[in-house]
Amino acid sequence: QAAVAYLRANATKYGAEADFYKKMDIHIHFPDGATPKDGPSAGIAIATSVISAITKRPVRSDIAMTGEITLRGRVLIIGGVKEKLLGAYQAGVRTVIIPKDDEPFLKEVPDAILCEMTVITVDTVSEALEQVLLPMPVSETPAPSSEMAPPPVMPTTPEQPGA
After folding, report:
1. Cα torsion at 116, 121, 127, 131 (round to 10°)?
2. Which of 50, 112, 139, 162 is the most buried (most CB within 10 A)?
């Protein structure tokens, strides 16, 4: 809900229609939702996904992110930074976005791993989106057909008797 609320308040900033929420329903389903979690640290990832889907702007696939978000778009401190960075590293991800307030916990990550990673700290959803949203794809116009159009059909008038 925080992700959708943030986008509603900032829709035009990201290229979405201001009233997008009146034209579509958004449902986010977590099939493994019954699994216990330590907290709402997927908020920034969910917000990014929703904004990407609404604006049709792709997201970089080489970045992991974690952080709780507020309705006003602040990214809040989360727990388990060391474990999350180690998990990203083991998965081959070398760039991670974390809340700015979690920066002191980076000292818990082994230097051998941390020196191979880029950790981006953010205070707001907007700062995170600047790092991960790619430009909107340019729509391609269909190429003109190489087939020739059939000649136009001319209306015919029935012949008049005696003509």
Report:
1. 10
2. 50
7 is a domain residue:
yes
Q: What positions carry a catalytic annotation? A: 41, 84
Task: Render pLDDT for 121-143 as a digit per residue (tens, 0 to 9).
Answer: 999 999 999 999 998 776 643 44
> What's the pLDDT band for 157 if we cut at 50, 70, 90?
low
Q: List the domain range (segments joined by +) for residue 13.
A: 2-132
Whether 76 is in a domain gets the answer yes
According to DSSP H, which parts of the chain are helical?
2-10, 20-23, 43-55, 81-90, 111-114, 125-132
The whole-angstrom separation of Cα 35 and Cα 29 is 13
Contacts of 153 (CB under 8 A, 6+ apart): none
The enclosing domain of 67 has a CATH number of: 3.30.230.10
State pLDDT tens for residues 104-120: 999 999 999 999 999 99
**Neighbour tally for 100: CB within 10 Å:** 16
